[in-house]
Design a protein that fits this description.
By secondary structure, the protein is of the alpha/beta class. About 30% of the residues lie in helices and about 25% in strands. The protein folds into two domains: about 200 residues, UDP-n-acetylglucosamine1-carboxyvinyl-transferase, Chain (Alpha-beta prism), CATH 3.65.10.10; about 210 residues, UDP-n-acetylglucosamine1-carboxyvinyl-transferase, Chain (Alpha-beta prism), CATH 3.65.10. Bound molecules: uridine-diphosphate-N-acetylglucosamine (UD1). Uridine-diphosphate-N-acetylglucosamine binds next to α1, α5 and α6.
């Protein structure tokens, strides 16, 4: 198994290009299932999660090909052969469940494996199934699979979600595009990836309004057609690399970065003593003189502080002056990076969903283990600022969500290399 060797050094300077959003691409790809006509995505990220979604769509009979070194994904769901998403693929990646809504809407049936738990929590699918049932689906759990059917087709309805789940919003919106009549989805998630999905669905002929607010209205249509859509910038990759100069000092421009994608995160960076400025090509980040200051962070659905940046923010706060309190409100078990950071000399006290971080002057390099996608990159960030060498093992987690991490970081002066193993 490969690992990543990071040697702590000084300030970082230069530019980092930000890729298209993994989480947007993972919901845009299943949207192909809604139409017989081709859907093409541009600005796609080159990641193993995208390959997993490609394999899933191909297992359903879709044609999926990549062009321009993987940045363009051309899909056709003209001749689908199956409506079953197998456990073998779904267990690798929870976002596989995003085929449920589209398959059910187009074919009146779908069989999708429950994903099971993952490292960061139980992650059930009740919010997805409740929404689809509100649209008239009958859903039964058999042998670990959700068997969904809508014999007379889905019908529009008013439905309020108990919690603004990102994936459930995406599944319900996709399903409602082909339902009969109007669907009003209340307490919908407002993440930029959902706005991106709706913009793509609209290009395919869907009639939707209210995306980006907590009420989304969908007027069902008989069929959707083909489209080409550019995937929105990855706000989590953006936030991650914004933390590199924050931790190491220097000045880095994030190409393609947009302030509206990272508003609440930027507020916390500013409070910690990190400046963020809009440029013609993106965002420029630099740390003010001296150590960063402690700040308190609570993760929330968008537009609040994203849970997917909590681990990376913790890496920054490990060397802040003062005591920071991080509260994780989205996932129940998302502090597994804390004990790894402690191996590097961080002082962290975890109690339930709260981590108290007492900043130390400098971390020390150590062998550490990636436990999930965002945890893995937080260890790389910590290693950049630590004294000596840090070896991060189990980097297959990293490959799920960060493309070319070694070349992007070495491009701004980081000492980082991948060790084949
Ligand atoms: C998406 C993102 C993930 C991010 C998360 C929260 C993708 C592919 N992944 O995941 O990176 O961390 O949003 O911003 O876009 N829940 C239920 N029942 C459900 C569904 C969710 O209880 O039916 C709970 C989950 O266990 C979790 C919380 O709701 O505690 C948030 O989950 P959700 O918003 O659905 O996240 P995902 O769509 O899985």
């Amino acid at each position: 198994m490969d690992s990543i060797l990071v040697t702590g050094n000084g300030a970082l300077n230069g530019q980092i290009p930000i890729a298209g959003a993994k989480n947007a691409c993972l919901t845009l790809m299943p949207a192909t299932l809604l139409s017989e006509e081709p859907l093409t995505l541009t600005n796609a990220p080159r990641l193993s999660d995208i390959k997993t979604m490609t394999a899933l769509l191909q297992s359903l009979g879709a044609e999926v090909s990549t062009l321009q070194d993987g940045q363009v994904i051309a899909m056709s769901s003209h001749d689908l052969t199956s409506q079953t998403a197998d456990y073998d693929i779904v267990r690798k990646m929870r976002a596989s469940n995003l085929v449920l809504g589209p398959l059910l809407a187009r074919f009146g049936q779908a069989v999708v494996s429950l994903p099971g738990g993952c490292a960061i929590g139980a992650r059930p699918m009740d919010l997805h199934t409740e929404g689809l049932e509100a649209l008239g689906a009958e859903i039964e759990l058999k042998d670990g699979y959700l068997h969904a059917k809508a014999p007379g087709g889905l019908k529009g309805a008013v439905h309020e979600m108990r919690f603004a789940s990102v994936g459930a919003t995406e599944n319900i919106v996709m399903a409602a595009t082909l339902a009969k009549g109007t669907t009003v989805l209340k307490n919908a998630a407002r993440e930029p990836e959902i706005v991106d999905l709706v913009e793509c669905l609209r290009k395919m002929g869907a009639q939707i309004s209210g995306e980006g607010t907590s009420t989304i209205e969908i007027q069902g249509v008989d069929r959707l057609h083909g489209a080409t859509h550019q995937v929105v910038t990855d706000r989590i990759e953006l936030g991650t690399y914004m933390l590199a100069p924050a931790i190491c000092g220097g000045e880095v421009e994030l190409l393609g970065g947009r302030m509206d994608l990272v508003g609440s995160f930027v507020e916390k960076l500013n409070a910690a003593g990190v400046d963020v400025e809009e440029t013609a090509n993106g965002l420029k980040v630099s740390r003010r003189n001296g150590r960063v200051q402690a700040v308190d962070v609570t993760t929330e659905p968008f537009p609040g502080f994203p849970t997917d940046l909590q681990a990376q923010m913790m890496a920054l706060l490990c060397t802040a002056e003062g005591v920071s309190v991080l509260e994780e409100k989205i996932f129940e078990n998302r502090f597994m990076h804390a004990p790894e950071l402690m191996r590097m000399g961080a002082q962290i006290d975890v109690h339930g969903g709260t981590a108290t971080v007492t900043g130390v002057e400098r971390l020390k390099g150590a062998p550490v283990m990636a436990t999930d996608l965002r945890a893995s990159v937080s260890l790389i960030l910590a290693g950049l600022a630590a004294e000596g060498e840090t070896v991060v093992s189990r980097v297959y987690h990293l490959d799920r969500g960060y493309e070319r991490v070694v070349s992007k970081l070495s491009g701004v002066g980081a000492k980082i290399e991948r060790i084949k193993g």
